[in-house]
Hints:
The chain has six helices and six strands, in the order αααββββαββαα. The chain is α+β, with helices and mostly antiparallel strands. The protein has two domains: 1-43; 46-202. It has a six-stranded antiparallel β-sheet with strand order 1-2-3-4-6-5, with helices on one face. Strand 3 and strand 4 form a beta hairpin. Helix 3 packs across helix 5. The longest helix is centred in the C-terminal third of the chain and has 24 residues, at 160-183. It is elongated and about 70 Å long.
Amino acid sequence: MKKSIYSLVLSENVVAAVDRLAYERHTNRSNLINQILAEYVSYETPEMRMQDVFDRMQALLGNTFQSLGNSSPTMLTLRSAISYKYNPTVRYQVELYRTPKVAVGELKVSMRTQSATLSLLVMQFFKLWIKIERAYHPDSDATVEDGRFIKRFVTDTMDSESIASGISAYVDAFDHALKTFFCNLDQPEIAEAYVENTYVNAHLLF
């Protein structure tokens, strides 16, 4: 959505109140005023669309994941614990694009750990998941970069409900498969079969 510069004459008290609210919502004055005016004239901005998707996702995933909130209007971060030594946590960072074209957004999955063994196991799972995904969807846009799993969500739909349910299902299946993988580390072949079954049975949109 194209933006232009306009001059407005506003009360200092109004500006101060807007700035406080903008700070609380992790945005800036211009974006907040733009959202307020859009709501008033019943126009959906990209920020409103993204927030709607994130709200739906948190409602769908709230029982399994801990939400770390929106670090920016375009991003939602979730966290999930794995049954392993010291219960390490996995971070799921969903970013939506303000102006979607081929893809509506992307998922980045990472785990911070000082354990070389744990890092190796996580990388093994990332590569296993990509291998399985590409076996069923050769055009899958998933990769591993700098120790993180990255997946772009390519779709023709722009419907917020479909996008939210599709991304939520993907994150949930990924997390379930990861936990199953760690629960069967002593049986690699069984672990791989469980991960594949999880992927297939999820009937993922992306």
